[in-house]
Amino acid sequence: MTQTRANLLLLFAGLIWGLGFVAQSTAMENIGPLTFIGLRFIVATAAVLPFALRETARATKPLSASDYRAFAILGSMLFSGMVLQQTGLLTTSVTNAGFLTGLYVVLVPILGVLLFSQWPHPIVWLSAAFSLTGIFMLSGGALNSFSQGDWLMIGGAFFWALQGLFIARYALRIGRPVTMACTQFAVVAIAGLIAAMIFEQTSWQAIQAAAPEILFTGVFSSGVAFTLQAIGTRYTSAPQAAIFLSSEALFAALFGAIILSERLPMIGLAGCALIFLSMMMVEIVPRLRFTKTKPVKTIFAENPE
């Protein structure tokens, strides 16, 4: 798969997450965040399992114990990010949530340098700054006073960034992206349901009321989008993947206008344009740097992982 196609998969994942933002927010009108997470990822696991089994049947070698440990680590990062984000939505504004979650765009290259000494193409730093600024403008260009939910969102952004980095490393080494995604989902589902049984009380009527949101986010926002993330990240760098996935904020605004009849102010429209510009920069500029000296087919191998 070429890097361009991988980035398009990540862009499509951002589109799905943007569409699912409303469902993720409204589900907690009926059930708690832990119950929602557990049920959502049960659906996600069931949706992806047939494809994971097919991938396993076609594999040339079995997975090792260390591979499954890597998948479990990714699952724990995904669970931590989901819990912090979902719980944070209870006590923070949508404006703050959208901006603070977008911090992972900047945290990915920073953590990549700190943990693995991976220095991305210089354009990634500028594109990350543009993308973060665009998310801030999309949120209205202002933050309310910080609440507990805001700090939870920052913690969630940290775990999203960690997950993005480690997915890039494990997906390249193991080469089983669908199985990796399915195992992550199962870990999150089990952890979410155990935590829900301990900390929350939920009735069957409440689950039925939230069923549309659970099914949509389970099949599409989790099953499809996170699998696309696992596949796409295998063929691009983690910082570039983070920038393309940040399109979630752009698509959330778009679907808010289409579905909920919301209208963006001029500063929000400018933020959308800046996010789009950041994605084009990170896709096009690295190619322009090498086109005079190297054939196109070698560019993808030269990108840092």
From TrEMBL:
It holds the Pfam family EamA. Residues 6-139, 149-282 form the EamA domain. It is found in: Cell membrane. It is a multi-pass membrane protein. The keyword Transferase does not apply. The keyword Oxidoreductase does not apply. The chain crosses the membrane at residues 37-56, 68-85, 97-116, 123-145, 151-171, 178-199, 205-228, 240-260, 266-285. This is DMT family transporter.
